[in-house]
């Protein structure tokens, strides 16, 4: 199979049939072998009914339904697990991304040898104040912190070599930063392509004002990820060990010199009266806590990562 189109969606019933027709038309007229995977991220409208109906008419349509809303990153994760095509295309369900870009994206992966091609909505049809301006700031910050030179991290339309999506783990809220995850996993041939973008035709954006907060937290994670690879809590562990050693040496030195002076009858204040002794002990204790915090983080990460992070309620195919 040449192409898997992966589409995460939440309450997009008005767009789905139109989107499917458009994608299928483009893929068939280019005679691609393909599958279209819809991941219903807990919709409460008629989206799932539409997906079921589409999959009955066309074998290449596959639907996955979560038992509740888990977020776009989790939906992409489920789609990536299922995808079988050599090239995996992700796109939003709201008709803002243009399926006619797919053939060129496919060629960039297969013929030009890129691992990942990210869409760039150079001309963007969203609200300037709530979307375009903040995303300019975030993109600039993301470029700086991650070293991945993209103009538009958040674009839903992206193309991947299959190997890439099978070897990265899209967790938390990381869907905006998959290129950074790919780079960290050793896929360096990453580029962008200017893509056409339309205004949302039906319904409303699912990412409101809290995208600012999420975006900010994302940025911090990205900075950590790029600096400390896949193990950000090693920073705490290392800092903890360092503090413990400094505190230990300082307290030891103070204690030793006091004892030495006491033994040789040199006049000196008692250890118990030296504030630096207590400061050293405190540094040791804080160091131990930092180390334990890092250790706990590591434990949580290890035990959580490998488990399924969402519940699949239904699929249109046999699991
Ligand atoms: N989406 C999703 N789960 C969510 C929120 C959004 O699967 O919790 C889907 C949504 O249905 C759409 C895509 O993610 O297909 C992008 O969402 P949206 O268009 O609201 O984002 P925007 O274009 O405003 O950034
Ligand atoms: Mg949209």
Task: Provide a compact summary of the structure.
With 319 residues, the chain is an alpha/beta fold.
Structural features, described:
This protein is an alpha/beta fold and 319 residues long. Helices cover 50% and strands 13% of the residues. The chain contains ten helices and eight strands. The chain has helices at 13-29, 47-57, 72-82, 102-110, 128-146, 162-166, 178-184, 210-228, 234-263, 275-305; strands at residues 3-9, 34-40, 61-66, 87-90, 116-120, 158-161, 190-194, 312-315. It has an eight-stranded mixed beta sheet, sandwiched between helices. β1, α1 (13-29) and β2 (34-40) form a beta-alpha-beta unit. α9 (234-263) runs antiparallel to α10 (275-305). The relative contact order is 0.13. The model has no long low-confidence stretch (mean pLDDT 90). Uridine-5'-diphosphate is lined by residues 8-10, 12, 41, 69, 71-72, 75, 92-94, 96, 156, 205-207. Its EC number is 2.4.-.-. The chain crosses the membrane at residues 235-256, 276-301.
Radius of gyration: 26 Å
Structural class: alpha/beta
Hetero groups bound? uridine-5'-diphosphate, magnesium ion
Distance N to C terminus:
19 Å
> Globular, elongated, flat, extended or rod-shaped: what is the shape?
elongated
Unreliable sequence segments: none
Level of helix content? 40-55%
Query: How many distinct helices?
Result: 10
Following the backbone from N to C, one meets helices and strands in this order, namely EHEHEHEHEHEHHEHHHE
Give average pLDDT, whole number: 90
Portion of residues in beta strands equals 5-15%
Count of strand segments: 8
- Strand arrangement across the biggest beta sheet: 7-5-6-4-1-2-3-8
**What kind of sheet is the major sheet?**
8 strands, mixed
Pfam families: Glycos_transf_2
Organism: Gramella jeungdoensis
Domain Glycosyltransferase 2-like: 4-168
Keywords: Cell membrane, Glycosyltransferase, Lipopolysaccharide biosynthesis, Membrane, Transferase, Transmembrane, Transmembrane helix
